[in-house]
Write a structure and sequence with these properties.
- 2 copies of one chain form a homodimer.
- Chain A contains 14 helices and 14 strands.
- Chain A has about 375 residues and is of the alpha/beta class.
- The first copy, chain A, has a 7-stranded mixed beta sheet with strand order 2-10-9-8-5-3-4, sandwiched between helices. A 3-stranded antiparallel beta sheet of chain A has the order 11-14-13, with helices on one face. A two-stranded parallel ribbon of chain A has the order 1-12.
- Chains A and B meet through helix 3, helix 4 and helix 10 of A and helix 3, helix 4 and helix 10 of B.
C-alpha cells in the first residue's frame, strides 16, 4: 500500500476503518444521542476545556468560516497573523465577510513573535479577534499559542486558533492558555477521513457570538449548541465520519493524550534528524519547527515535481510539495495522527534513494543508515 | 440488524460499505482527480443535465444555504412554496440571509398548485427565485416540479429545487424541465452516509451567481467550479463519503436510472396499499403521494411515540414520526435508496403487529397477508 506521508488526509488506523462499517441510524434517535455525547465529552477532554465542542459536517475551511460568521459583525477589526498559506486563507475568509483585517505578516518559515503581536494590537486599537494558525502546515512552523493568547487577552481580543494540523498532535491547553476558539477537521491528527469540522468554544467566544451580526444558518453556533445540549443536531451529521471519530478518540485516550504529544515530539525530532542527515536544509526555524509536519528546501539541481513524482512512481511514497509562494521550493513530510517510526523510516529511506536516482549526492552516512534497516 | 425504514439516512448497500475501506489519498493528487471526474460526470447524467454538478462537504441544509448565498443579494425577492417542514426550512434560510421572502403557503399534505404559483408570481413582481421542495419529506407529498419550473420561467425567476428526498428516486429531468438548481445530500436515494451536499446548476443559475452579492467563501460556487474544472477542490473533500458515492452511482447506473425510478414507483404503490390495508388513513393527497416516503395518520387511541418505541423495541423496526406541526399526528415510512419489497414487507408486517399489540383492531385481511409471508 502507498506510504502516505502528507500533512493530511492521514492514514486511518484499523479501528477507524472497522468503525466505518457500522450501519446507519436515525440521527435524532437514542444511539445517535449516545454517539454525540461521547464525542463531545472526549473532544472537550482532548482540547483541555470545560467549554462546548461543536461538530459540523464540513472541513477545516468550514471551521474557519464558522468562526468568522458566528463571532463578528461586518466592519469588526481583527488581527490576522499571516506566516503561510493557511494564515493567508484565514485572513481571506475574514475579508470575504467584510471584516476590517489588519495583517501582521510573518516571514514564511519563522514563527510569529508574541512581542510583535502585542505591538500590532497596541498600534491598532479596537481589534476584536486575533486569527492565529497554531501550526502552519505550509511552512512547518508551530507558533507560540500560549504567549500569543496571553497577548490577545491583554488587549481584550479573542484568540481564534486554527488548530487543523495541531489539535491532537501538539500540546494545546485551551482553558489554561486562554484560547477562546479552537478549530480543526477530522482528517489530520484525529486520524479520520475528512468530513467534519470540530469547533471548541470558550465563554468569551459565546459572549462575542451573542453580539455578532453576520448572517448565518448552517454554521450557527446557537442552533448547534441548543441541539447538542438536547442530544440532537440542527443539520444531518456525517454519521460514518463520526463513527470513525469515536473509534479514533477512544484510541487516542487509550494511548493517553500526553503520550500522543510525546510520540509526535519524538517523531518530529526523528524526521528532522533524518532529513538533515540527507544533507537537506530544513526550511522552518529550528526553534519553532513543527512536530506534525517537516519542511525541507529542495536541493539545487533537483526539480521538486520530478522528485515527488519519482518518489511516488518508483517507491510508492507520497509526500507533499510547497504551497503558495513555496511551490517548487520545499517538500513537506507529514507525521501526524496514526504514524510511528517504521513508516517514516521507510519514507525517508525512499526519499534518500529518490534523491540519489535524480543525481543528488546523498551523504554516505544517510546511505548506510538506510542500508542498515 | 435493525430494519431502518426512515426517510434517511438510508441503509447502505454492500458495495458502498466496501468502498469505505479504501485508503486515504492526497486530495489534490491524480487518483482524486479521477474520482472527482467520475462523480461529476455520473451526477450530471443522473440529474439529466449538461450543466455543472458541484460537491461540497455538508448536508442537505448546507446545499440549501449554498444556493441562497451564491445566487442572491440581500433584499432580493424570492417566492418560497411552503407545504411542510422542509419548505419552512428553506424559507427560514432565505430570511436569515436578508432576502425578501414571499411565502406561498400550501396545506400540509397537499401539493402546491402550479396555478397558485403563477398567481403569486403575478401578484408579487420582481421575484428572482422560486424555492420549491420537490418531495416534501415531512408530509410525503411530491410537488409538480415540471409545471412549477415552467411557471417560474414565464416570470423570469430561477427555480431552486430542494431534491434532498427525490434526486435519485423520483423522475427529475433537470434540463428538459428547465430546473435551474437541484440540491441534494448523499444520505437519501444516493444510498450513502450523510456528509456531502450535491448541487447541480444550469446556465441561468450561473448568470444569477455572477450578480449575487451575499458574502461567501466555503460555499462559493466560482471557487468550487474553478477547482473542479482543474480536477481539484477548493476545500478538503469528504473522501470516504465520495468513495461511497462512486460505488453507489455505479450501482444506480448499472441498474439504470429509469429502472430505479420505476422501482421506487412500484414500492410507493406497494407501501400505500399495505398501509391502507391496515386500515390506516394515508396522510398525503393520493394524487401527489410520494414514492420515496409514505405518511399515514396515527389512528385514534394510539399514541404515536408509544407506537414508534414499541416497533423499535419489540420488532427492531424503525420508522419516523411527524415533524413540526405533524408531530404526534402521523407516521412516516421511508422507501428510498437501497430498498426492495422484502424489507418493506417485514416492516409493514411489524407495523401491523405493533398496532395490534397496542389495542388497534387490525383488519383481518392485513393479518392474513402478513401471516401468509
Amino acid at each position: 500500500m502507498t506510504n502516505l506521508r502528507i500533512p493530511g488526509p492521514t492514514p486511518l488506523p484499523p479501528s477507524v476503518l472497522a468503525a466505518m462499517q457500522e450501519p446507519m441510524i436515525p440521527h435524532r434517535g437514542p444511539e445517535a444521542k449516545e454517539l454525540f455525547a461521547e464525542l463531545r465529552a472526549a473532544l472537550a477532554r482532548l482540547h483541555r476545556t470545560t467549554g462546548d465542542v461543536l461538530i459540523f459536517p464540513g472541513s477545516g475551511t468550514g471551521a474557519l468560516e464558522a468562526s468568522i460568521v458566528n463571532l463578528f459583525s461586518a466592519g469588526d477589526r481583527v488581527l490576522a497573523i499571516v506566516g503561510g498559506a493557511f494564515g493567508e486563507r484565514y485572513a481571506k475568509i475574514a475579508r470575504a465577510f467584510g471584516l476590517d483585517v489588519v495583517e501582521l505578516p510573518v516571514e514564511w518559515g519563522r514563527a510569529a513573535d508574541p512581542a510583535a503581536v502585542r505591538a500590532a494590537l497596541a498600534a491598532h486599537p479596537g481589534v476584536r479577534g486575533v486569527l492565529l494558525t497554531h501550526n502552519e502546515t505550509s511552512t512547518g512552523v508551530t507558533n507560540d499559542l500560549q504567549a500569543i493568547a496571553a497577548a490577545a487577552r491583554e488587549h481584550d481580543a479573542l484568540l481564534l486558533c486554527d488548530a487543523v494540523s495541531s489539535a491532537g498532535a501538539l500540546p494545546l491547553e485551551m482553558d489554561a492558555w486562554g484560547v477562546d476558539v479552537v478549530l480543526s477537521g477530522t482528517q489530520k491528527a484525529w486520524m479520520c477521513p475528512p468530513g467534519a469540522a470540530i469547533i471548541a468554544l470558550g465563554e468569551r467566544a459565546w459572549d462575542a457570538h451573542a453580539r455578532a451580526a453576520l448572517p448565518r444558518f448552517f454554521w450557527d453556533f446557537t442552533q448547534a449548541r441548543d441541539a447538542a445540549r438536547a442530544g440532537s443536531v440542527h443539520v444531518t451529521p456525517p454519521l460514518t465520519t463520526l463513527y470513525a471519530l469515536r473509534a479514533a478518540l477512544r484510541d487516542i485516550e487509550a494511548e493517553g493524550l500526553e503520550h500522543v504529544w510525546a510520540r509526535h515530539a519524538a517523531l518530529g525530532e526523528y524526521v528532522r534528524g533524518r532529513v538533515a542527515g540527507l544533507g537537506l536544509t530544513l526550511f522552518a526555524d529550528p526553534a519553532h519547527a513543527s512536530n506534525s509536519v517537516t519542511t525541507a528546501v529542495v536541493p539545487e539541481g533537483i526539480e521538486a515535481k520530478a522528485l515527488l513524482d519519482h518518489l511516488r512512481e518508483r517507491y510508492d511514497v507520497v509526500i507533499a510539495g510547497g504551497q503558495g509562494k513555496l511551490a517548487g521550493r520545499i517538500i513537506r513530510i507529514g507525521h501526524l495522527g496514526y504514524v510511528h517510526e517504521p513508516e517514516l523510516a521507510a519514507a525517508l529511506d525512499a526519499l534518500g534513494a529518490a534523491l540519489g536516482d535524480l543525481g543528488y549526492a546523498v551523504p554516505a552516512g544517510a546511505r548506510q543508515a538506510a542500508a542498515a534497516r
